[in-house]
Structures are given as structure tokens and as C-alpha cells.
Write a structure and sequence with these properties.
Pfam families: AIRC. This protein is an alpha/beta fold. The protein has helices spanning 16-20, 33-46, 58-63, 100-112, 128-133, 135-139, 153-159, 182-189, 204-219; strands at residues 4-6, 11-13, 26-27, 51-54, 70-72, 77-80, 89-94, 116-120, 143-148, 166-170, 197-198.
């Protein structure tokens, strides 16, 4: 059994749900609306879980011809068949308001795949009292996704406060020496708070999927 459908322009991984618990997630950039339509139609027919398309601009989303979907413009996420609540609590914490588009992707993807989400906004270390005021929200979570640019210090601060897994997302927010997120990425990778998971720059999607894998193991 080959486990995929060849559409000519894409080989749709129809076996992904059996291997990883979710259907293949479609990366939107570079795909025409009719290609997204074909891929999503195939995934809906060959799976039972949520079908998602990430990084979709509004004009492309409007041209995708598959009934029953919803679109989150801030997260740039198209979603069909969102999953039922899996009982795994994820807190999404952002350092600053400018980090919200990336955090929004993490929150929207996590919600669509059945994770309970709670958002704590604007708790960056430049005003550490804002973070400490949200300490109980952070500690009640099964996992925390920390989204931060600049020097990325929020991930270390949260990692020192909670015992649950912390998934750090560096963002490209910041001035020149932030190097479009590289500074935050390196800071998170070298964090003094041991055991952080660090994903790619601006990839809220990757953070949500890391939380998905944690939830799957917790459920077993």
C-alpha cells in the first residue's frame, strides 16, 4: 500500500493520520487556490481528523472552493473539521503585542487540533511583574508555548517558573541586532532553564504540533 494519492502537482500523504494522529497539514504559500482545493478535498475524503492549511493570505483563502471551512485572518489558517476537546491544556504566552501574529497561529492550530488553549499576552521581561501576575495561569497548563522576539528572554523566565514542558518560539520582532529572530533563537537554545523545546523562527505552527505530540503521549 503506497499510502499517498498522486494528484500530479502533489502527492498527498493519506497515511499521516494513522502514523501521527492527524492528517497532513498543508503549507499554503506557493500553492494556487485550485491546488489547495484539490489537496484539501482529498484529505477530507481520506481522513477523519481536522484538515488545516497554514499561512494562507485572505485573497487565496477566499478562492479556495471547499465548503465547510473557516478562516482566521490573523493566524492565516484555513480549517475544516476541528477536533473535539482532548483535555490537554496549553497556555500561549507572548512577550509583546508585536508577537501576536505568530502566537495567533500557535493558538489557532492548537485549538483546531483539539487542545484547550489559554492566552496570556504582553508579559515580556521588560516588566517582569506582568509575568509574575500570570504565574498561576502558567502553572495550571499541561504545556506552555512562549512566543518572544528581541532577546527571547521570556522563554527562560517561564522555564524557571513552571514544571510542565515549555515550547519556545523565537520571533523576528526586534531591531537590527535581533537579526530577524536569530538572536532570540540562539538565546532560547542556550537557555539556563534546562529542557526547553525550541522551534523555528516565527513558527507558531511548529509549537502547536510539538504540543500535539506531548498530548498524544500523555493520552497513552
Amino acid at each position: 500500500m503506497k499510502g499517498f494519492t498522486d494528484l500530479g502537482y502533489a502527492r498527498v500523504d493519506t497515511d499521516r493520520e494513522a502514523r501521527q494522529g492527524l492528517p497532513e497539514v498543508v503549507y499554503g504559500p506557493g500553492k494556487r487556490p485550485e491546488e489547495i482545493t484539490g489537496i484539501v478535498t482529498e484529505l477530507l475524503a481520506r481522513s477523519t481528523g481536522p484538515v488545516l492549511v497554514t499561512r494562507v493570505e485572505p485573497e487565496v483563502a477566499a478562492a479556495v472552493d471547499v465548503p465547510g471551512g473557516s478562516y482566521d485572518e490573523t493566524a492565516r489558517l484555513l480549517a475544516w473539521r476541528p477536533a473535539a476537546d482532548r483535555g490537554f491544556q496549553v497556555c500561549v504566552a507572548t512577550a509583546g503585542t508585536s508577537d501576536w501574529p505568530v502566537a495567533s497561529e500557535a493558538e489557532a492550530v492548537a485549538s483546531a487540533i483539539g487542545l484547550r488553549t489559554h492566552v496570556v499576552r504582553d508579559v515580556g521581561v521588560a516588566g517582569i511583574h506582568r509575568l509574575l501576575a500570570a504565574e498561576e495561569d502558567l502553572r495550571q497548563a499541561d504545556a506552555v508555548i512562549v512566543v518572544a522576539g528581541m532577546e527571547g528572554a521570556l522563554a527562560s523566565a517561564v522555564g524557571g517558573l513552571v514544571s510542565c514542558p515549555v515550547i519556545a518560539v523565537p520571533t523576528s520582532t526586534g531591531y537590527g541586532a535581533s537579526l530577524e529572530g536569530v538572536t532570540a533563537l540562539l538565546a532560547m537554545l542556550t537557555s539556563c532553564a534546562a529542557g526547553l523545546t525550541v522551534v523555528n523562527i516565527d513558527s507558531g505552527f511548529s509549537a502547536a504540533m510539538a504540543a500535539h505530540r506531548l498530548a498524544a503521549v500523555a493520552r497513552r
